[in-house]
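Loading example: each entry is read as two labelled lines plus one structure line.
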Amino acid sequence: SAVISQKPSRDICQRGTSLTIQCQVDSQVTMMFWYRQQPGQSLTLIATANQGSEATYESGFVIDKFPISRPNLTFSTLTVSNMSPEDSSIYLCSVSDRGFYNEQFFGPGTRLTVL
Amino acid sequence: AQSVTQLDSHVSVSEGTPVLLRCNYSSSYSPSLFWYVQHPNKGLQLLLKYTSAATLVKGINGFEAEFKKSETSFHLTKPSAHMSDAAEYFCVIRDDKIIFGKGTRLHILP
């Protein structure tokens, strides 16, 4: 299994600002994903981070709001742009090293509070 | 369209008694199905997975699940609950998309 770290672990931000979350994996992985978990809710997939190309976004999420980078097979960033209190959530990085139909491993999450 | 439904938002059982967490799914394909557990303030951990091999899947910590195509179910069970099992459990389906169920919070009564 892959070991995943995220930075920051938590942050409190002001409305209108942006935050970039980093995800680092201890091994090369084929697929990386970003999820959002709103308070008391389940996980919702934001996008699949593709190495060397643009991320693939799910319905309801757009690149201008959640730009994603994936410069190599072990690292990705998610930016939450122009934040509002509705963006207060836990953001989770996830990886799958054996293809789409196999299990995912999750990072510890970044707890974001927007005031 | 695919979907996953966890039939109970909360389940309470006494320590030492069986656990049943229910999950039904809908899929146009032959999906992969997973159960994950999330302990308070901790990350998600894979309990078990079904990927078209044996229909009875054994996972960690004594949990198992049975894939029943005729009932489109993938219920999670454990013969004897332990206090440390108290957590949020998510059923997940993957075919052309990845979808998490809404979660079931398991409470263990002493």
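The mean pLDDT of chain B is 93.
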